Amino acid sequence: MTEHSGAPAAPRKRRPRLIGMVTSDNVTKTRKVVFEYLARHPKYNKYVKRQTVLHVHDEKNESHVGDHVEVMQCRPLSKTKTYRLVRIVTRGPQVDLSVITGEASRMFEKQKAEHAARNAAATEPAAAGA
């Protein structure tokens, strides 16, 4: 075992924290978070919108697209991931991804077929009784 000197350790410096919006949650435990800011253009002296995209580690996969999250700098976890999720500030709107994947159109076709079958079944007994 190594012996520590009696001097107290210096307190850790506060790590930078940023608040941004999740734009992608396709990869397990990784989120893409966008931070927008205004920067002055060197030639035209107007403020221009800029953005930084960070890869963030989300251990519990709890954030989703559209959420505003707070992230903190940490040791490198991979080639591009050097931030981790601290908390979810606000939840974003829940997006129905079935429309994008085509699941909604398949469900619509299935409901349409069921409805047609129900209508056909309802008209047959009426026609037989007449």
Architecture overview:
The protein is built from two helices and five strands; from the N terminus they run E-E-E-E-E-H-H. It folds into two domains: 17-94, Nucleic acid-binding proteins (OB fold (Dihydrolipoamide Acetyltransferase, E2P)); 99-129. The N and C termini lie far apart (98 Å). Strands 1-2-3-5-4 form a five-stranded mixed beta barrel. Strand 4 and strand 5 (81-90) form a beta hairpin. Helices cover 24% and strands 35% of the residues. The mean pLDDT is 85.
Quick gist of this model?
The protein is of the alpha+beta class and 130 residues long.
Overview features:
alpha+beta; 5-stranded mixed β-barrel; 2 helices
Unreliable segments (pLDDT under 50, ≥5 consecutive)? none
According to DSSP, the number of beta strands is 5
CATH topology of the largest domain, by name, is OB fold (Dihydrolipoamide Acetyltransferase, E2P)
The percentage of residues in β strands lies in: 35-45%
CATH superfamily of the largest domain: Nucleic acid-binding proteins
The helicity comes to: 10-25%
Which structural class do the helices and strands define?
alpha+beta
Distance between the termini: 98 Å
> In angstroms, what is the radius of gyration?
27 Å
Task: Compute the average pLDDT.
Answer: 85
Global geometry: elongated
Query: How many H/I helical runs?
Result: 2
Q: From the 3D coordinates, which CATH architecture of the largest domain would you assign? A: Beta Barrel
